[in-house]
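Lab notebook, bench 4. Continuing the backlog of folding jobs that were queued last week. Each job is logged with the same field layout so the records can be merged later without manual cleanup. Today's entry covers Catalase, a 694-residue chain. Filled in by technician R.K.

JOB TYPE: sequence-to-structure
TARGET: Catalase
LENGTH: 694
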Amino acid sequence: MSNKQPTSKIQQFEKQTYVDPNEKVLTSSLGTPVSDNQNSLKIGEKGPTLLEDFLLRDKLIHFDRERIPERVVHARGAGAHGYFHAYEGNEKWTKANFLIDTKTKTPIFVRISTVQGGRGSADVVRDVRGFSIKFFTQEGNYDLVGNNIPVFFIQDAIKFSDFVHAVKPENPNEIPTGQSAHDTFWDFISLNTETAHMSTWVMSDRAIPRNLRSIQGFGVHTYRLISADNKAVLVKFHWTPLQGVAQVVWDEALKLNGMDPDFHRRDLWDSIEQGNYPEWELGAQIFSEEDANGWDFDVLDPTKLIPEELVPVTPLGKFVLNKNPDDFFAETEQVAFSPANIVSGIDFTNDPLLQGRLFSYTDTQLHRLGTVNFNQIPINKPVCPFHTNRRGGYANHEIYQAKANYEPNSLDNNWPREAGDRSTSAFRSYEEKIEGCKLRVRPESFADHFSQATLHFSSLEEHEKQHIKDAYSFELSKVASQEIKQRVVDNILINIDLELARYVSKQFGLQVKDTQISQKKKAGSLTSKRLSISSFPASDIKQRKIAVLVHNGCNPNSINEIKKWADSENAIAEILGPSAAPVKDVNNNPVEVDGSQTGEPSVTYDAVVIIDGENYDEFISDGVAKHYVLESYKHLKPILLLKDKAELVDFLGLNQDEGVLKAEKVKEAKDAFKLAIQNHRIWDREEFIKAIPA
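JOB STATUS: finished
OUTPUT FIELD FOLLOWS
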C-alpha cells in the first residue's frame, strides 16, 4: 500500500503554473496580475476615478485595516475644541453657510498629528503634521483634512499604501519608529521621482515645528467653491497661524524627544489652559479653470502648489482653539475625519489622490471604530438636525419612532424625503462634463517632477537651505545601501539643485555627474518668498517661555521686573534654580523657584535670563548653569544677562549678536529682548556655534 499523499487539484495547478521565485509578477490579493500599479482607473487622462477600479479598492481596503486599533497613519495626535468665525464677502464665492454667516461662530474640533509613528512615539520628530478641522455647521459636518505642508509625496491614491509601507518601520525589526531615516523610505523616494518636491519640504524646518500653535495648514488638493447661482471657482485652502510660524533646530529636536516626548501636546494643552488661545486665519487661493489651464503645472497634481505671487490667499475667516478635550479617548482618539464629509457650496475635483481619499478615509473609520454608526459618537455627531432611513448596526444609539425605514413611503407622510428644490442647503454635485475612455494613465501635465522642488529650494533663506542640505545628509547617513544613496543623488537631488546634490554627495563620497541635470520648466516664477518661514513672523511673544536662572545671592528686584514684564506680554517666565528648593536672595530671604535647571531643560524654553546679584563666582562654578546658557546659545535663542552676569559673554566665549543682550535693568533691554524672542531664533549665529562645546 502506498504512503504517497494524493495530490489536490490546487497542488496540481500550482505545479503546472510554477514560476521562478525571482520573477514574481505583482497581483491583486486574489492573484489577478496587475498591468499598471502606478495609476488608478479614470475617465480620460484627467477625469474622475471610477468606483469599479477593483485594484485600487483591493489595495486601499487592505491598507485601511493594517493596524488595530490605532490609526494606520496619524496615530499620535493632539486635539482641541474651538470655533470658526467667517469674514464678510464670501458669498460671492460660495453658498456654504458657515463661510457666509458672519453672525454665527461655528463649533470646530481640530486634531494635529504626526504621520509615521505610533501612539507611543515622540512629538518633535522630522515628519509631516496632519492638521484636520471638523466644522459642526448648521448644514452638516464639514471636514477640512489637511497637512502642515502644501503638497504631498505622490500623485495618485493607488500609490498611497506603497508610500506609507515604505516610510513605516521596516518589517524585519520594526525599526525605526517615528522616523524616515532608513532604507525603505529612501528607496521609495529614489524610485518615484514625483516625491522630489515633497522631500524638500520634509527635509526643511517645516518638518520640525517648535509647537503645534505655530504651524500652517493646507488642504493640499484643489477643491471647488459653488455660489448660490451655481457659479464655480477652484480653490486651494490655507490656514495661517497668527502666532507666526516657528521651528526648532535639529539638535534641539533630538534632545526634546528624549527630555519631553510629549512636548507638542503639552504646549498646546498648557496654552489653552492658560487662556493664550491659538488662532489661525483660514484663507483660499481662488482661481478659475481658465486661469489654471494657462499655467505650466496642473492644479490637479497634489505634488504641486500655486505660488502666492501668482494667486494671493483670500482671507475667509478666523478660527480659535479655546477648550481642551475632557476625555482624550472619547474625543481626540475617536474623532473620525474624512474629506468626503462635505457641505453644500463646496465640491471635489478630479485630483486622483483626493478621489482615492474620498473612499479610503471613510473605509478606515469603519474598520477602526468598528461600526457604521461611528458618526453617532458624540465627537463626530452633527449639531444640526439629521434624518436618515438607516437602522440597526453595531453600537446604534439613535431611537427611531417612525415605522418606515425606506423612501418613498406612505406610512410616515413620506418623511424623511429628499430635499429637491425646497432647500438651498441641499448638496448638489457640480455639473462637470466628462468625456473619454477608461484608462490607467498618468496625465502628461503631471510629468514635471522637479521644477517646483527647485522653486521651493531656491525660495528659502540661506540658513533654511543649509538645514535642508544637512537633513538630507543626516537621513541618508542612516541608509545602509550605498546604491540607494547614489540613486537619491542621481534621480532626485541633482534635478532639484546642483549645489544641494554636491553637498550631500560629498558627505558619502558619492559621484555627481553634472551632465545629468535635467532641463527644468519654470514653475510660474523663479522664487516665491511665501515659501520661506521668514515670511510668517510672530506679532507678539504670547505663550513664549522664558527661563530665569537664579542662584543664592540673586537680586529679587530683577526677578520681579522680569516676571512683571513677561506677564504684561502674556509670556511665561519661570524661575529655575540649581535644585527645586528655594534659593536665598541678596537679603537672605527665600526665593521660591518653579523648577530646577536640570529638571526644566533649556530646550523647552524660548529665551533665557540670567539674574544679577552677589553670586557671580557661584554661577561660574555651576556646570549645569553654564551648560544651560551655552546650549541656549547653540540653539540660537535670545539671552539676557543682567549687571554682573554680562561678564559671562567673554567667560563663555559668546559672540555678542542681536540676541545676546547685556543690561543693568530689565527695562533697558525689554524692547530688544522682546524683538529677539519674536524673531524666534538668531539665524546669523549659526556660523559661530561650531566653536561652542556640545
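OBSERVATION: The chain has a mean pLDDT of 92.
SIGNED: R.K.
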